[in-house]
Amino acid sequence: MPIRQFQAQRMHAPRDFQMISPDPICVEIGAGKGKHALLFSGQNPEKKLVAIERTREKCLAMHKQHVLEGQANLQPIHADAMPWIVHALNPAQVQQFFILYPNPEPHNPAQRWLNMPFFEFLLSRLQVGGTITLASNIAEYIAEAEQKLIEVWKLPFVKEVIAETSARTHFEIKYLQRGELCQQLIITKPEGYRTRFDDFMPLQGQSAAQQIALTAAPEKAE
Ligand SMILES: C[S@@+](CC[C@H](N)C(=O)[O-])C[C@H]1O[C@@H](n2cnc3c(N)ncnc32)[C@H](O)[C@@H]1O
């Protein structure tokens, strides 16, 4: 069954939303206390990383460490990633997305990233050849994501086992110390891949009149 269409035009801007520049960027979703964001931005000074975390205390911890380390190419954002992405990002602006150890949502599988209609919107923001790194310690989460990539999203990916010595995030360290198997999917957007949001400009970049027109005439769901 095709996934229903994400209602992007209904997303309200996050509180205190500020537009970002339209340059190519990397985006981490659910960055926690920012361990990976700080490492990645330090190791890749030529890349700009936006690290989004919706839990205030965790985002504050990331912000504090960022002030100490001072990476000029890192921007921590306290927000829900979905409305922030809809309001901030241009089509094909993103070089890499990172979703590392997302909440497994055991009681609400529809809320897992690849099960949500929002995932189509996320794909529209990714540039051709861009990647999404999805890591988890839950084998079933990875297996379900693989199935969705094949049957629904029709995207190429590789599956990797994460080395026991890896220490990119606080959750990764915890799971590997417990001896759990951690895996990741590296998903690539191929040339010619189309989504229903490829022409959807960020909501904050549109005039009020355009937004009203969009709300009045949403695209038909398939
Ligand atoms: C299990 S934690 C993993 C944190 C970090 N990536 C790590 O591996 O240590 C998942 C994180 O995703 C955040 N999160 C979940 N949904 C989110 C959303 N829609 N927008 C922003 N952050 C989200 C949660 O607040 C939580 O901090």
TrEMBL record:
The keyword Nucleotidyltransferase does not apply. GO terms for cellular component: tRNA methyltransferase complex. Gene3D superfamilies: Vaccinia Virus protein VP39. The keyword Methyltransferase applies. It catalyses: guanosine(46) in tRNA + S-adenosyl-L-methionine = N(7)-methylguanosine(46) in tRNA + S-adenosyl-L-homocysteine. Signal peptide: none annotated. Keywords: Methyltransferase, S-adenosyl-L-methionine, Transferase, tRNA processing. InterPro entries: SAM-dependent_MTases_sf (IPR029063), tRNA_(Gua-N-7)_MeTrfase_Trmb (IPR003358). Catalyzes the formation of N(7)-methylguanine at position 46 (m7G46) in tRNA. This is tRNA (guanine(46)-N(7))-methyltransferase.
